[in-house]
Amino acid sequence: MRSKKRKSQISQKITNLSKLNLSESKSLGQELINEAISKALMVDVSAKEETLRRAEAQGIIKMSPETLKLILENKIPKGNVLTTAKIAGIQAAKKTAELLPLCHPLRLTSIEVEINPQEKESSFLVTARVIAFDRTGVEMEALTAVVVACLTIYDMAKAFDKRMMISDIHLLSKQGGKSGNFKW
Questions:
Q1: Per DSSP, what are the bridge partners of residue 112?
Q2: Helix, strand, or coil here: 101?
Q3: Which of 29, 51, 87, 141 lies in disulfide reach of 130, CB 3.0 to 4.6 Å?
């Protein structure tokens, strides 16, 4: 009951925010931020059973045909873009709990990053597969691996193409855990 009352109070404050002067709205805005911060917590998974967890995610990085060709021919001055991006994705999966404040550190047992050219679309399809035997899922690790692999490709080729676009990052599948399996 108290929670509903508090939510109602916050909702009313937000509704009235537009009616306040700048000083009052800053004060209320800070109060709402403090409220949100005080509610943030890492979920307790100590009572959960350790099970096999798998997740697969993917994303796309689009670029000019010329940039795609330079990468495929290994002519980017910074070095081998695809190998570097794979390594960066693997490292990122291992560091996910350091990057996302409420994400649990996990004992990952396998990380695979695959980068395939899609020449007709002038892009690379980046896929990450992560496995762990733990109390919580590995979806965030797979997604993080994809994002960082794409960012690495961008970083290494940006001198040739600043219009590259990273898109369609999503979870393809997950296995294990109380919520069961998911497939896109």
A1: 129
A2: coil
A3: 141
What confidence score (pLDDT) does residue 13 get? Answer: 61
- Are both 142 and 162 inside the same structural domain? yes
Whether 155 is catalytic: yes
Question: pLDDT value at position 40?
Answer: 79
User: Which of 124, 139, 122 is closest to 60 using CA atoms?
Assistant: 124
Of 134, 155, 161, 168, which residue is the catalytic one?
Answer: 155
Assess if residue 46 is contained within a domain.
no
Q: Residues 16, 105: one domain?
A: no
pTM score of the predicted model: 0.80
Alpha-carbon gap, residue 42 to 94, rounded angstroms = 18
Cα 165 to Cα 43, 48, 70, 75, distances in angstroms? 34, 39, 17, 20
